[in-house]
Amino acid sequence: MGRPLDVELAAEAHALRDAGLWRALAPDAGRADFTSNDYLGLSRDPRVVEAARAAALEHGAGARASRLLGGGSPHDAAAEEACAAWLGTEAALLFPSAFQANLGLLGALLQPGDVVCSDALNHASLIDGMRLARADVRVFPHADLGALERELASAAGTRRRLVVTEGVFSMDGDVPPLRAMHELCRTYDAWLVIDEAHAVGVIGPQGAGAWAQAATDGRGDERLAARVVACGKALGVAGGLVASSRALRELLVNRARSFVFSTGAAPAVAGAVCAAIEVARAADDARAGLRASMERLCARLEVDAPPAAILPVVIGDAERALELANRCRESGLEVRAVRPPTVPAGTARLRIALHTTNTAEGIDRLGEQLADAPRAGRPRVSTPRNTPLFVVGTDTDVGKTVAAALVARTAAGRGPATYWKPVQTGGDLDTREVARLCADTSLRLAEPAHHFPLPASPHEAAAAAGSAVDLAGLDARLAELANAEGELVVELAGGLLVPFDDRVTQLDWVARVRPALLLVARSGLGTLNHTLLSLEALRRRGLVPRAILLVGEPHDSNRETLARMGGVARVIELPRLPDVAAEALASWLVENPLDFLFESQ
Predict the structure, then answer these.
(1) Catalytic residue among 75, 123, 355, 555
(2) I need a surface site. Which of 185, 207, 284, 510 has the fewest CB within 10 A?
(3) Which of 59, 75, 182, 198 does the annotation list as catalytic?
(4) Residues 127, 118: contact at Cβ < 8 Å?
(5) Which of 195, 304, 334, 487 is catalytic?
(6) Which is the catalytic residue, given 73, 97, 122, 170?
(7) 577 exposed, middle or buried (CB, 10 Å; 0-12, 13-18, 19+)?
(8) For the chain, which domains are there?
(9) Active site includes 421?
(10) Cβ atoms of residues 408 and 389 within 8 Å
(11) What is the CA radius of gyration of the chain?
């Protein structure tokens, strides 16, 4: 029978097997690697391997003790300096593992009573760090800025507020709206912590990660508390680095229990990390190749290419996911199924990780194996050469077409430009009005993809005409126009949440396209509610307009309130023009140039 404890453990293991959740350690057996996190292939890079060998020969096999007791080697400080220089921080601290780095960082920053807002898909090390700190943990739906803002607003008055997220989510491969999160931290006196495990080395300038990629607007990082680098991912080694201010580093040295009470990283690890950072910083060609591989695979599967090196193929059923993974492995492709509790129930998947070492032949074989796999995901949208500017409104009849004409005139004054209204309803054709207001420019006009006679929302007008909005057709036409020379100005119909059909709203489409935005609203009574609700809906999808344009009699109180509460860089007023003509628009633009809408944000 065995010991009672072993009998109990065997029963627990049997229950896991019955649920299809049993896991076992298994070597890759020489298959093509589509599983590990060694995205740049640095674990076998001769420069990294030689650095590890040299450090071990000079300083020994182990760190011997906690660094506070004299353990470690000079390579620890060198790795920290290299990381800080790479990520542009004042300092960094090396932990023996990235799991320990997250435990130590969150334990040092948080105390009971503090509030920490955690993305629902955060990694286990972040979750455990928050729990161990005994802070008030508030989980918000994945990348849901509206929910995050509500949690931050309700946490006013607490000693400290943190927002914790991943830079690239390990099971979904997506990048959260980091800049918008940072702006919320600024607004609500909170601090942002980013686990860059699957981002560093893969995305951003010199591979410096998701924050470096998001922060190219030059607006600063004053609310960024720390970033965590998992050295066992793209760097191909081991260990974890917390990149932060000098003040936070010194606090971690004294308060992070997983640092204070752990033997330091082995000299070979620290030496290899130094070399891996140097190689990764200069690996732009390798990153470009990795990107090309991802686009090649996604083209085969007809899905959007994710921003980094992780592609989730969501199957749903855990047993079916295992069957597909085994089929891939039998064909020489190392692919693993990810099942609950690692991912939520009903979302079992194949987690495909690409590497610079993957061949075109291997990628094509993987595409063949997965071509008929049932999978959840968004339809594929082509990436435009130019970022379109969408003029969107809080409601109908808010002055959106005049605003679109102002924007189109601005674009045409900068070079080639096109105006397009995808769906027109009713007898008044806004394209003709924009043509009249921009007649003295070289603006190109694209005809609507749909024109329905009934003056109603697109879904109702389409139904009345015995038709439907062709979403795939809108995608294709948008891609065509956005890839043409010059700027593209797109005017939507009515408010953001107007339906295209019974499932998809205009905002759903906007969130998928992710254009630049100008939000048009009335200036007078009722605009605060409509405008703030529209902004909340946009933020829920990680979108922030470049400006709000208030149309009508100037209203100082409404403008000032939206400037304070809207979280948008600019709030502009457009009085009702006595003569809505090309000359009047040109005259207004002289005093109120809108060129900033087309400049990099």
Answers:
(1) 123
(2) 284
(3) 198
(4) yes
(5) 195
(6) 170
(7) middle
(8) 44-281 (3.40.640.10), 284-370 (3.90.1150.10), 389-598 (3.40.50.300)
(9) no
(10) no
(11) 27
303: Cβ contacts below 8 Å, ≥ 6 apart: 311, 375, 377, 378, 380
Residues lower than pLDDT 70 in the chain: 1, 19-21, 26-29, 216-219, 345, 374-386, 540-542, 600-601
Q: What is the pLDDT of residue 130?
A: 92
The verdict on whether 195 is a catalytic residue reads yes
Which of 131, 130, 205 lies closest to 163 in space, CA to CA? 130
The helix (run of H) or strand (run of E) holding residue 349 is: strand 348-353
Active-site residue (options: 33, 166, 334, 430): 166
In the annotation, is 128 catalytic? no
Given the residues 59, 75, 233, 355, the one annotated as active site: 233
Summarize pLDDT for 13-28 with one digit per residue, the tens. Answer: 877 777 666 777 766 6
User: Is 37 a known active-site residue?
Assistant: yes
Q: Where do the DSSP E strands lie in 57-156?
A: 91-95, 115-119, 136-140
Q: How much of the chain is in helix, strand and coil states, percent to nearest 5?
A: 45, 15, 40
Sign for the pseudo-dihedral over CA of 377, 378, 384, 386: negative
Tokens of 535: 């902004």
